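Data availability (excerpt). The following record was deposited with the supplementary files.
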Amino acid sequence: MSRRIQVIGAHSADFVWRAGGAIAKAVELGGEAEVIALSYGERGESGELWKNSDPAHPQTIENVKRIRQAEAETAAAVLGASFRCLDLGDYPLQIGRTELELIADAIRSFAPDVLITHTDTDPFNPDHPVAFAAVDRARSLAAGAGVQSAFATVRPPALFLFEPHQPELCNFKPTTFVDITSVFERKQQAMAQMQAQSYLQTYYAERAGHRGNHARRASGNQEVRHAEAFQRVIPQVVSEL
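Predicted structure:
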């Protein structure tokens, strides 16, 4: 059965570091993937673009957005996903009723089987917990808590949190490892597109190796070389253990 996977991040590059492998794996298995960014990360997530600004031709917010859009579109295409940005602004990312409805509509429109977003805590990034709260609430609104409602709803998607940069400080406890060995090179190609944050490429390549080691120990499958870690939020319903 093909799976529909939707990743909603606070900034335009969040998906590639933390869920790029899971996206590529879902597509490899015949699924469909969509990436939604709440912002481009134009103010707080694009340091390389601001650092290298030419005094004769000062960098601008609009130019940074344009570059980030192109990077994210190319990276998503490498993974086999579509990409769009809601352009809600970053640092601070602020979510009111209008923004919440936009996110809920995006979830309804794509009707994912699996929804992935940030953890509820991140002491080093003020936008990530805001994104979690918005996506978590929008998911509930889009699904109508799994009951008939006075508005259009979708089947409740499974909710997963991708691994933050410093998991031990972000209430992150991995409950699921995705074997991304077969698509790891594709993830590397996608990460290479994010020149505004090129310093993260080595970190997340190494992290995939670390999680591959953990996945081998947990499963006994010695073929796993690279993996991504996720935390499942919504209980899984099965017919047997």
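Summary of structural features: DSSP finds seven helices and seven strands in the chain.
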